[in-house]
Structures are given as structure tokens and as C-alpha cells.
Amino acid sequence: MLSVSLFFSSSSSSHLLFLSKTLTKKSCFSSLATMSINLNAHAFAGNPIRSKTPKAHDPLSPSSAFQSLKTHLLQNPETTSLSPPPKSPLFKVLPFRKGRPLASSSITGNNDDDVPSWHLGWISLPDCKYFLGKCGVDLTEDSLVYLGSNVEDDVVYWAVDVSGESRLVPELGNKQFCFVELRTLMVATDWSDSIAMGELAIAGHARALLEWHNLSRFCGHCGEKTIPKEAGRRKQCSNESCKKRIYPRVDPVVIMLVIDRENDRALLGRQSRFVPRMWSCLAGFIEPGESLEEAVRRETYEEAGIEVGEVVYHSSQPWPVGPSSIPCQLMVGFFAYAKSLEINVDKEELEDAQWHSREDVRKALAVAEYKKAQKTTAAKVDQMCKGVEKGQSLSADFNVESGELAPMFFPGPFAIAHHLISTWANQDVPTDGVEAGSKQPSSSISNL
Q1: Where are the alpha helices (DSSP H) in 216-332?
Q2: How does residue 171 score in pLDDT terms, banded at 50, 70 and 90?
Q3: What range(s) does the Nudix hydrolase domain occupy (predicted)?
Q4: Could you tell me the pTM of the whole model?
Q5: What percentage of the chain reaches a pLDDT higher than 90?
């Protein structure tokens, strides 16, 4: 419940004014908090092969699949890369190189304006064994990490890190595969395509797991090497006197749209690494012994000097495209209501922070060509997979139709920041005869 006392002034009329506005915000965003449960999955969420974990005795479970994997790897290597698939279950492997998943691209239809779509570069287990064998590498069960399964198709999915095998690049390139940055695939994904969003979620999960494996090669307790366990879902110290269990880490990050007391302006920040004209929400890592709400208030004050009162949850999003040293970020999104308005920017954290009116934010959202950026990046991925990579500045893809640069823009629909900003900006937009202010804010990705 929103705290009315946070916004009281000394006069009784101000009491009534802020009480009215606070109750309006309460009804508006309590409905938003409820609606967030029914959100279509954010980018990197909604992984279709992790929806249910099979029981231990199931042939597609991590333990059963791992035993079957060892049996398959003991077989003689195939003499051709076009080997038949193994008997049930079918194993598919997704190679990664330096954090980049293997991908391919295709165009459906014969029209000139058809947009290519990327796909994960799954290869069969025998093919993976064959390609690595040509590079002089023996594929072992400890090299593969269990990702999930598809019961209907009787398929188990694995990931493997081949960063040290540069000779694989031309081998796979000859078959029009390419290792593509996950951020590039993120922008190239059609967010209205549930299948494409599912593939992006699989790639994000795989990258996070593989990066964690690279970071946890030694035990933090005794310093001995660690070995994979449970098909790569955890690791264990190899020291018999230690045997410490190590699980994948998750690094929670609060991301918040700070709103003024009148609910008319939002505080947005710029970092020096941002492309020109881009603004976004404030964000920061949660510290030990700190609640989510406390982290929102602390980070907002540290970065912009703004005191925050009420904090309302919106939604969360896995974020595996950060630095490789922090591969498993979880963005936890909030609306935060400011108790003060004067900005004091910490220049070590932000380049700038400003209050922006709802009207200006709404205009920027209306003219930003996110779909154009998605199509342009999808075409870039297609060229890369065909071996004809072309440089492209994505910052130029948010121009308005007139060719003029938009005065500002925000991260695209692949980011939770976009949904925080657009939900607030459009919460009172009238549609189908509904009066402004009475429409519940829509935070559904499918409606963007």
C-alpha cells in the first residue's frame, strides 16, 4: 500500500491533493502489479525447454540423459559429418565461441521485402563429435552442459564451449553457420514471434551457464580444480577433503523508473557508454543484507541524489548479455516515487539525469523505429551467416520517417527498461472510446 504520509505538506489542502494523487497511483499500479503476473515472457525469459524438469528416472532427465550421453560418446566417430541421428533420445548440441552462440539464417517466402529470421545452430551429437575430431579434439561428457529437453520430440539439448577451436569457424561457415554476439541476436529477434523469443531464451540460458563454468574452474574455498556434476548443472571441488558444491550464481539488479509526486514526469539517466540521444531507467546491483526496495532507494539516491518513498514491483527479466564476469544477471523492475526533485548526478555513475514529461516520453516512443532496427539487424545476421558481414550502426536505426534524428529514444522492446517506460507513458492513453485515466496500464509485450 502506498504511504500517503510520504507526500504530505504542511497545509491541509496539500494533504488532500497528495492524498487524491496517491490513491489514484495506488489503484493504477496495484492493477499493474497484478497484470505483471500475466505478462508474456520478456526477452530471455520463457525458455521452452526448461518449463518442466523431468523426474530422475525419466530418460530425458539430466541424470538419465548424461548416462546415455556417455554411451554415445564411446561409439566410434563417424566418417562423415552427415551422420544419421542416434536412437532415442535425440541429442542436439549448441556450440558457443567466446560467448557467441552458433546461428543460421533463412528467409521464408519469395517477396523482396521478406525479412530474414535467425535460428540457433543446433547440430547433432555425431556431427559435433566429427567437427571437433577434425580439429584434433575429443568430445567428452564433461564438455557438454545440459540445457533441457522436449518430451514431444524426444530431444535433449546440450551446449558446448568451443572457444579454443578457431578451426571450427571456417568448417561451420562452409555450412552457412556463424557465431553471433547474443546482443546482436537480441536486437534481431522479432519480439512478436514466440518461437524466436523462445530460441533467444535458450541461447541466453546457455551462455549464462557456460560463462559460469568458465568462471568457476577452481574452488573458492581451497583453490583446487572443480569438476562438473549433474550434467553440468553444478560443480564440485575435486579435493577429496573439501568436495565443496558450487551452484550457478545469480546476480540480482534493481532497475527502476522514478516518477515525480504528481505522476507527470519520469527521471531518466544517461551513461557514457550509451549511443547518442539514448536515455534509460536507473539501475544497480543489490548489496548483501539489502531488500529490493532498499536497493531501489539507495541506488536512486547515490546516482541522482533523489530520495524515493514508495516502491512498486513491475516484472523481472533474466539478462545474460552483460559482462562475461557477471553472466547471470536478473533485472528486477520497479516503479519508484520520488520524495524530492532536485537532481545531483554522481558523474562516476551517470553522465546525466533529467526529469522528462510524459508527453515528451510518449512522443519519443511514437517515433522510434524499433521494428526497423529489428529488421535491419536481422538482415545483418543473415549477411554474417552467408559470410558477407557488413558494418552497421544500430544507433542510426531510430530515425523518424522524415530522416531527422529523434530528440531522444529508449532501449527497445527486448529490454525491461522499455516496458517500464512505455507502461508509465501510456497508462492514460484513451483507446476504443475509453476515457483517459480509466484505462489499465498494459505491460504485455504482445501489445507493443
Answers
A1: 292-304
A2: confident
A3: 248-378
A4: 0.83
A5: 58
